[in-house]
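Saturday, quiet lab. Running sequence design on the structure tokens for the scaffold JK sent over.
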């Protein structure tokens, strides 16, 4: 090695860190504590030149970094950096700062799912224009390596479907409702007490967080562009004890699933064309399915590919250290590109596939009905399904004893619980069927309605 090459090898790559919250502080700590190993893996040292924060004077004595590194002037460290790590979250000022970093010639590592789901294509274009990298493994499922396997390892395969438990808060809540009989509100409070849920858990329990991640997964898996506002979203706030019990009786469990799948759409000329369905909603899934055993606040992503078959990725989906692990993995990758020359893969959106409306998506329903125990009721129910083009897979009936001391004639009449599981049908047809069933005078209560996946 010549003297000039030796000097270059010893020259550090300058790293700017934007944000020092739970994830940012873990990133700063790991960059400092593992500096020698990281330098050996990259081929050059990584020098943390600054940490942009809102309050530079805040006590951060627990971090093993020089207090002089903290600054409120993010732009001053961005323009001097080779690599910029963005962990501040949100749309702005994150987007403006990332675009400045790229314009300044820095590669970017981000954990910002909301921004990437909304403005990913524009950021990819900026990265390509300025010849830099944009990596974001930590944006989906924390420590679980899923984006790079989809983006790179499976680039030669045809991914058919991605099923994911990508929000730890909701998985914890649903797991407690299933395993302990805990109510929704109590389970959320426990998740908050353990630090799994924010004081305002809306983004988690209403599915916004999972929808942003689903958009990113679908875009990468199917080589198209999907934004978070194209993802059908339904949270877990309406999941009841009856739903959980109905799933248990089917040897299933309720999970909030991010579902991304290749499908077909009917074009304006009536012909079928390729499309994608991207949705987030609660669903029953068999306990025997790999996702059925994901407990507590863990995440998992299940991929179905033509050649590779079924693949499962499992681990911690949130938290400072797990997320920082994914961030630093990306930092090493982009740093190696800096040392060796070249860039990682950019956006692959050549397919330009339409995203189905939820009503067009093919789903299955599990429906629990309390009905009058009279002749012809089952025929009425079956007719409602047939009129909407929905085929029944199974029907199970259980008699509910009458209450001779009931307050009205209906309660003193024997009734039955009907459990109906459908074949696959358009979601709009299934929803219309449920409405029609609820209107029948022989149907006393629609106890539970839940989509079914993985069975």
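Result came back. Writing it out in full:
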């Amino acid at each position: 090695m010549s003297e000039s090459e030796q000097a270059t090898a010893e020259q550090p790559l300058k790293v700017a860190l934007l944000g020092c919250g739970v994830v940012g502080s873990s990133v700063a700590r790991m960059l400092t504590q593992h500096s020698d190993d990281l330098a050996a893996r990259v081929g050059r040292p990584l020098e943390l030149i600054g940490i942009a924060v809102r309050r530079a004077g805040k006590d951060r004595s627990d971090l093993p970094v020089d207090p002089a590194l903290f600054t409120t002037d993010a732009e001053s460290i961005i323009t001097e950096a080779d690599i910029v790590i963005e962990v501040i979250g949100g749309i702005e000022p994150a987007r403006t700062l990332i675009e400045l970093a790229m314009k300044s010639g820095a590669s970017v590592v981000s954990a910002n799912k909301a921004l990437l789901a909304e403005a990913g294509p524009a950021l990819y274009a900026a990265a390509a224009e300025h010849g830099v990298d944009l990596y974001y493994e930590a944006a989906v499922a924390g420590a679980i390596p899923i984006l790079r396997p989809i983006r790179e390892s499976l680039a030669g395969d045809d991914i058919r479907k991605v099923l994911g438990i990508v929000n730890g808060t909701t998985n914890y809540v649903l797991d407690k409702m299933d395993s302990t009989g805990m109510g929704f509100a109590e389970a959320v409070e426990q998740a908050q007490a353990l630090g799994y849920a924010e004081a305002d858990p809306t983004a988690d329990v209403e599915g916004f967080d999972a929808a942003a991640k689903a958009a990113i997964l679908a875009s990468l898996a199917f080589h198209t562009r999907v934004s978070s506002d194209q993802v059908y979203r339904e949270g877990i706030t309406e999941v009841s004890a009856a739903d959980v019990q109905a799933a248990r009786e089917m040897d299933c469990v309720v999970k909030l699933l991010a579902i991304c799948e290749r499908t077909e759409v009917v074009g304006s000329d009536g012909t079928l064309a390729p499309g994608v369905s991207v949705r987030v909603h609660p669903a029953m899934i068999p306990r025997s399915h790999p996702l059925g055993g994901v407990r507590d606040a863990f995440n998992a992503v299940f991929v179905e590919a033509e050649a590779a078959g079924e693949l499962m990725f499992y681990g911690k989906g949130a938290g400072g250290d797990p997320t920082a692990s994914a961030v630093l993995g990306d930092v090493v990758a982009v740093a190696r590109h800096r040392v060796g020359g070249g860039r990682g893969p950019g956006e692959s959106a050549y397919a330009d596939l339409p995203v189905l409306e939820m009503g067009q998506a093919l789903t299955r329903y599990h429906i629990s009905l309390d009905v009058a125990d009279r002749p012809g009721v089952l025929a009425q129910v079956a007719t409602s399904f047939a009129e909407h083009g929905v085929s029944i897979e199974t029907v199970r009936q259980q008699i509910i004893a009458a209450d001779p001391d009931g307050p009205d004639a209906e309660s003193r009449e024997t009734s039955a619980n009907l459990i109906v599981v459908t074949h696959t049908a358009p979601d709009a047809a299934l929803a219309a069927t449920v409405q029609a069933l609820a209107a029948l005078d022989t149907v006393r209560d629609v106890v539970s309605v839940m989509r079914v996946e993985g069975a």
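Notes for JK: The longest strand covers residues 252-266. Residues 3-142+322-340 form a domain with the Rossmann fold fold (CATH 3.40.50.720). Ask whether to fix the surface positions before the next round.
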